[in-house]
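re: that chain from earlier
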Amino acid sequence: MKPNAQFKLSVMMFFQFFAWGAWFATLGQCLGANGLADFGGGAYGSAPIGAIFAPLFLGLIADRFFPSQQVMGVLFLLGGVLLLLVPGVAESGNGEAMVWIMTANMLCYMPTLGLGNSIAFANLDRLTFPKVRVWGTIGWIAAGLLVGFLGWSSSFDIFYLAGASSVILGLFSFTLPNTPPPAKGEPVNMRALLMFDALAILKRPAFLVFLACSCLICIPLAYYYGLTSNYLSNAGFEQAASTMTLGQMSEIFFMLLIPFFFRKLGVKWMILVGMLSWVARYLLFAYGASEQVIWMLLLSVALHGICYDFFFVTGFMYTDKVAPENIRTQAQSLLVFFTQGIGMYFGYQVAFGRFGKEVTGYGNLNEAISSARTIEELGVLEQLGRMFAVSMPEGLDATMLTNVMSQWKEFWTYPAFFAGAIAVVFFLTFWDKVSVAEEEGGE
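^ sequence. v structure.
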């Protein structure tokens, strides 16, 4: 391992996910508070579009012509400039232009996820990687806490924070360990770029079931990523961005427990528990809404560790296990294409479409809460204490609150049943005796 490589790569991971987490978690709340909720599906849909095209960019350009750290630097500088343009465009009310700018930014950002991993694996011992990758989750948490502390959960200023951190990382990337393009001089293989070779793995019935269920369940999953901040703000949480970091904190905890659960449960039950956790999360949101049961809402957010690690991380490990060695990269790209790409894209369209039709009182309640809430001068410790607190202003129209919370209950019930139906199909049709734990234990 090269001197200072671990430190530099940890900094890279921190800012990489800080730049994303600064705006992603509360974008829905921000758009809703500024009259742009109708553009939520397109804005969040920019991430899946980036995920769909990232493998092509990596295969055609990043892996062949330039050192990875230089490509990383250029992409973050371009993305940072684009993020800095968003507030001015959005505040002018031009939602369509905002979506186009965000899409351009995510086309720059999404390839850096693969690039960052490539740089890390090329310069670190394999067992050191998790110690570096965890700084990405810490960066996401730090961004959420800072956005909440600054009171920017409903402000387009989140893009100034994201843009500035992106530019900083862009400049810092040029100091990262030199990582030559891994496929330099090799001919372009369009079959590999388009993942055609990986389609052969679909002949394995269990993997076909896994891929189909993974794609479909990402539709209800998009509800959480896109609209939780809106819901929490209606429920009286003052700093939704900070509240949502509970999910990333639990993610770190459960990530450490994955080897243990693999040995105890196996692939099928790990993935099934992940799916059922999404069902539980949405039911907690639904039935915690009408009566304002705060512990249910916080528990739902805290379930993110199981929801994400048991489903996504297990899925990547299962894919790596069953795919032939020569097409493992393609197989992982295929999984990302169908989950983070196709599934999430349609999920955001469905979620925001139903939000606009069903939670019709969101804007009025949000405005009433903001107007009734008094601005207080708080010390640092007091401000930190408010990050996970609920404060519903006195004098708020109780009938309005009850009606809107009833709308939220109906809204969250749909993804709960959708995810539940897919979990049942997966339970009945997925049969694979492969053991990821055996390989992990033998290394």
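The chain has a mean pLDDT of 85.
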